Amino acid sequence: MQKHRFYLKGSAAEVAWLNRQADAGYQLAAIHGCTYQFEATPTAKHVVAEYLPKTTLDLMTPVFKPFATHVFHDDLAVVYSPVTPEQRVVNDDAQYRLAAYRHARDVALNWLNGWVLAIWLLMSAAIVLSSQLQATPLLTRILLTSLGLGAALIVLGIVIGARAALRCHRKVCRLIQVTGDDQDTWKPTFHVLFKHQAALPDTE
């Protein structure tokens, strides 16, 4: 059986959905993009997702035989392993999870920008094209309808893209606190002002 879902691979929302499928008797078998393959079995197990480097994945796959794996473009992978209710799961992949969520946030923002730019270009092309035609009431209605639809699509794209980026950004902020990795993050600039001091300050 196949199901199509759009999840960030390895996210808590995806794992929760996969475990609901396991409760319904469908065991995860493979993942190909947004397509999830399941096998019907009365003993379906829950899964746990862990991020790790692709080199580590290549070494561990023949030994541990996970249910499914997914490789990101930047040598980062996520592995889905079975887990029983008696087992206590402790994840130590915060550094790799941070990289995945940073990339997902950037992708969401890029899609948002691309969507707005594409719709704006189409609206501009419609205005330029209409200026070359003879004005009629029908043409005016079509143009206004098209511009209104384009504006609505822009707002819809901004809302969807901003929500996705904000969810990823919240995860990034939490993982930065866990890992202490604040590289490429915004930091406030501090200025120290010296007044009424004749000599230069000793900065060494």
Automatic annotation (TrEMBL):
The chain crosses the membrane at residues 107-130, 142-166. It comes from the Bacteria. The keyword Transmembrane applies. Keywords: Membrane, Transmembrane, Transmembrane helix. It comes from Lactiplantibacillus pentosus. This is DUF2812 domain-containing protein.
